[in-house]
């Protein structure tokens, strides 16, 4: 491992000296989604894997960035624990580092937190080829700026993440999913109303006129079906896994897949194309649209739009920040990566 | 970035009076006295000028003025901080955000509250209560501390294991930059399009910008919460109970531990019915639905009993639950009554190291001749040793600072950190080089420069200069 690490550092130093772009790559499960294509020499991180430390009673796990998510989830399951943010894999190669860089979280996100919420510390190679350590392996740590969480969603444009410490939690003892037929507007209202009551929700999605509500915790499953409306779903774990991994029929086909992140209470968008709602209303998927129009629609609901998969990825693929914030993005990028070698243009074409 | 011109305090005060109502510019040392320190009163510095803007526009104008003249600007909330993070700069302006104290909007359907920075932490939960909602992070100072300061410090509280820190409970922050530009970070959704600047800003101690509006997440009030309190003959037994609870998959809403000295001080103060003969007290709160709480309570109680408690008590009603908490929540002032002064430390350690760390603190306590009462957020590993001292005795302040520094070094040595929730400020700047190497410190300065190239926002706090790091390491000699 030390050899892989020193090789990564050497490659970064050489690239920085030559001003040569690097395209950071983990397991390849997220190639072609979320970001823009990057022209650069591949920097392979997948070989830098393995769990470094895991003590179940500390609720903290530390692993090298190239560790497969599957390996981490298997280690946690042995002790009845799990990643509370239910990260999508999108392929067998999915790594912990890629999950942080993409800040990918699954259906439990509004209740179980996000990858960004759970990260406690990182080690990363900055654009000068220095291997740095931020945060730590404890849950409360306010020394220095929170560089660890800044990596979430930065798509590897600020450094090469080499190691991550994150908070893990007990897996829920029971889960029940209830299904109700409802139109979109009513489903949005219902999801928000329930989220404001002390219900042990762990998933709330709407698709094809049906509202899916998942409850998780240490209750008897019958108490849930007796208390909340809906029919108990038999194959619920398969449904939630297919939703998380985008294997449902909604996600099939080559049309572009748009993701809108917005206020959970935002009413249905005027566009009447196919829509899938997750995260209790706060995440919505569309199969049609363009960046300018969706950015405007999302902004009205306090959010933003991303061309998640497919479509024309040579242009911008996510809502732009307003000019003063864009300047700050450039300055922050330069603070980590002065030569601009990490995934240039991956997040925004101008950066 | 060079200042347009140097400016003398008189002219600066005059210019400030052109921005805010003259009575909100404080230039005389008597009126400015309360601004000399924050909650860490052993570090004091009279401010040159204090200004209390009454609107975001005024905050921007003051920032522009200070920026134009290269004048240091220190933002301040209620001044309850415990790391000298709001200590004035001798040639700078202190900007109190206390007048920006309006709750702008509570959106009950979306479960968010949009508030000005000077709103107190508790006021948010009080305003949300009729809607069946509350704001989860609850630092001990929640009656007085303001949400702007909570964002600057990434404040915690006693419910962090289950509900997270400030950073986990924010939706959006409006920020005035050093140049006086207004930026909106975050939004009404659960993430943002580009870099997560809000995460970076949270806990940045006023070094990157001035928080002028905060939108927080509100949670539904749990149906029920209950507390179990157990007294043990040794800290090790209480520590074992904590580890076993976590291993069994229980995530309590709150999990607190106190040592004998802290128990007795708290009991004398709050009369909560704590077992004063115990060497360790474990306080565990579970919350949720009636059914879930019953299930978890039974499991918590079983674990606690397995470790031979001297006493065990379960709250039977809300009044009793609040009384049992009152002892813990008043532990700091209670310790304040048994000693002329106390110095509160804030390291975090892996939980498994608790007994080891407490034993070594006891050794240091004997070495320095200063008693220590320990209060521990056992759920998240955040340790608050309270060192008792008398600032009136010559040399005792220096002694207590040296002792405190040793405790923080110990926390880092066992895999923890120098501050869990109080921040670095001026206080722990000497310990930063223990936790970080020069390369990390240089990276922190580069981040600072991206936001504040002239370095005028809260200068001297949070991140030491490289030169200082070398001096501090040399001073510590061979210890690390």
What does this structure look like?
Chain A is an alpha+beta fold and 351 residues long. Chain A has two domains: 2-170 and 328-336, Uridine Diphospho-n-acetylenolpyruvylglucosamine Reductase, domain 3, CATH 3.30.465.10; 174-309. Chain A is built from eleven helices and 17 strands. Chain A has helices at residues 2-18, 69-77, 96-102, 109-112, 115-118, 147-150, 184-195, 221-227, 236-244, 291-300, 323-336, and strands at 22-25, 41-44, 51-55, 60-64, 81-82, 119-125, 131-135, 160-167, 169-170, 174-181, 201-207, 210-217, 231-232, 257-261, 275-278, 283-286, 304-309. Chain A has an eight-stranded antiparallel beta sheet. A five-stranded antiparallel beta sheet of chain A has the order 3-4-8-6-7. The model of chain A has no long low-confidence stretch (mean pLDDT 96). The mean pLDDT of chain B is 95. The relative contact order of chain B is 0.11. In chain B, a hairpin with a 4-residue loop joins strand 5 and strand 6. Chain B contains 17 helices and 19 strands. The two termini of chain B are 39 Å apart. With 480 residues, chain B is an alpha+beta fold. In chain B, strands 12, 13, 14, 15, 16, 17, 18 and 19 form an eight-stranded antiparallel beta sheet that branches.
Count of helix runs of chain A: 11
Under CATH, the topology of the largest domain in chain A is which? Uridine Diphospho-n-acetylenolpyruvylglucosamine Reductase, domain 3
Q: Give the topology string of chain A: H per helix, E per strand.
A: HEEEEHEHHHEEHEEEHEEHEHEEEHEH
Alpha carbon gyration radius of chain B: 23 Å
- The neighbouring-strand order within the major sheet of chain A is 13-10-12-11-15-16-14-17
Q: Whole-number average pLDDT of chain A?
A: 96
Q: What is the number of domains of chain A?
A: 2
């Amino acid at each position: 491992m030390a050899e892989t690490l020193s090789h990564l550092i050497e490659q970064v130093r050489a690239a920085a000296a030559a001003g040569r772009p690097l395209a950071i790559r983990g397991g390849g499960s997220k190639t072609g989604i979320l970001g823009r294509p990057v022209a650069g020499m591949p920097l392979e991180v997948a070989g830098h894997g393995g769990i470094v430390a895991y003590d179940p009673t500390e609720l903290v796990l530390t692993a090298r960035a190239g560790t497969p998510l599957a390996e981490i989830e298997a280690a946690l399951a042995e002790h009845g624990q799990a990643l509370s943010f239910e990260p999508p894999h999108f392929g067998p190669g999915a790594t912990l580092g890629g999950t942080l860089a993409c800040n990918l979280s699954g259906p439990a996100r509004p209740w179980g937190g996000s990858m960004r919420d759970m990260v406690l510390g990182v080690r990363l190679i900055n654009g000068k080829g220095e291997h740095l350590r931020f945060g730590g392996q404890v849950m409360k740590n306010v020394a220095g700026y929170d560089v660890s969480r800044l990596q979430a969603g930065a798509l590897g444009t600020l450094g090469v993440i080499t190691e991550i410490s994150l908070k893990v939690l007990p897996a829920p003892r029971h889960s029940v999913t209830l299904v109700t037929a409802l139109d979109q507007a009513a489903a949005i209202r219902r999801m928000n109303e329930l989220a404001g009551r002390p219900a042990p929700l762990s998933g709330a999605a709407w698709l094809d006129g049906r509202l899916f509500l998942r409850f998780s915790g240490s209750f008897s499953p019958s108490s849930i079906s007796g208390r909340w409306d809906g029919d108990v779903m038999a194959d619920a774990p398969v449904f939630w896994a297919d939703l998380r991994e985008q294997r449902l029929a909604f996600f099939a086909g080559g049309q572009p897949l748009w993701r809108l992140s917005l206020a959970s209470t935002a009413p249905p968008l005027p566009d009447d194309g196919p829509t899938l709602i997750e995260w209790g209303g706060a995440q919505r998927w569309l199969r049609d649209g363009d960046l300018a129009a969706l950015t405007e629609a999302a902004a009205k609901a306090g959010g933003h739009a991303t061309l998640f998969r497919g479509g024309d990825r040579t242009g911008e693929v996510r809502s732009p920040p307003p000019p003063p914030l864009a300047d700050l993005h450039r300055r922050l990028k330069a603070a980590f990566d002065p030569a601009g070698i990490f995934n240039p243009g991956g997040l925004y074409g101008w950066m | 970035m060079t200042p347009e011109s140097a400016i003398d305090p008189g002219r600066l005060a005059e210019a400030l009076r052109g921005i805010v109502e003259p009575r909100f510019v404080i230039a005389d040392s008597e009126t400015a006295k309360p601004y000399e320190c924050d909650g860490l009163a052993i570090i004091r510095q009279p401010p040159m000028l204090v200004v209390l803007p009454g609107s975001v526009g005024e905050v921007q104008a003051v920032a522009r003025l200070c920026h134009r003249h290269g004048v240091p600007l220190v933002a301040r909330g209620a001044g309850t901080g415990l790391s000298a993070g709001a200590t004035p700069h001798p040639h700078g302006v202190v900007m109190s955000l206390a007048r920006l104290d309006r709750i702008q909007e509570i959106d009950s359907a979306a479960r968010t509250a949009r508030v000005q920075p000077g709103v107190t932490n508790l006021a948010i939960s009080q305003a949300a209560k009729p809607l069946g909602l509350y704001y989860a992070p609850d630092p001990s100072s929640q009656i007085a501390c303001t949400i702007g300061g909570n964002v600057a410090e990434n404040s915690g509280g006693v419910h962090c294991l289950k509900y997270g820190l400030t950073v986990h409970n924010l939706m959006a922050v409006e920020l005035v930059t050093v140049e006086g530009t207004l930026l909106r970070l975050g939004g009404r959704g659960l993430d943002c399009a580009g870099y997560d600047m809000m995460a970076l800003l949270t806990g940045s101690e006023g070094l990157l910008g001035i928080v002028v509006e905060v939108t927080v997440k509100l949670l539904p009030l749990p149906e029920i919460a209950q507390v179990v309190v157990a007294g043990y003959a040794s800290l090790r037994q209480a520590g074992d109970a904590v580890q076993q609870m976590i291993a069994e998959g229980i995530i309590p809403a709150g999990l607190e531990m106190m040592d004998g000295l802290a128990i007795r001080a708290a009991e004398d103060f709050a009369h909560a019915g704590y077992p004063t003969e115990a060497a360790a007290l474990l306080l565990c709160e579970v919350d949720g639905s009636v059914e879930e709480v019953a299930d978890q309570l039974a499991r918590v109680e079983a674990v606690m009993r397995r470790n031979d408690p001297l006493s065990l008590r379960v709250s039977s009603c809300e009044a009793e639950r609040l009384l049992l908490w009152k002892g813990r929540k008043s532990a700091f002032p209670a310790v304040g009554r048994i000693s002329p002064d106390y110095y509160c430390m804030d390291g975090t350690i892996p939980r498994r190291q608790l007994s080891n760390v407490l034993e070594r603190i006891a050794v240091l306590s004997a070495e320095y001749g200063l008693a220590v009462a320990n209060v521990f957020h056992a759920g998240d590993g955040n340790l608050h040793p309270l060192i008792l001292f008398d600032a009136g005795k010559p040399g005792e302040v220096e002694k207590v600072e040296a002792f405190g520094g040793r405790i923080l070094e110990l926390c880092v040595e066992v895999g923890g950190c120098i501050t869990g929730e109080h921040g670095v400020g001026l206080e722990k700047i000497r310990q930063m080089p223990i936790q970080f190497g020069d390369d990390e410190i240089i990276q922190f300065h580069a981040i600072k420069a991206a936001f504040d190239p002239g370095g005028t926002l809260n200068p001297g706090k949070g991140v030491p200069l490289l030169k200082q790091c070398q001096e501090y390491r040399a001073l510590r000699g061979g210890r690390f």
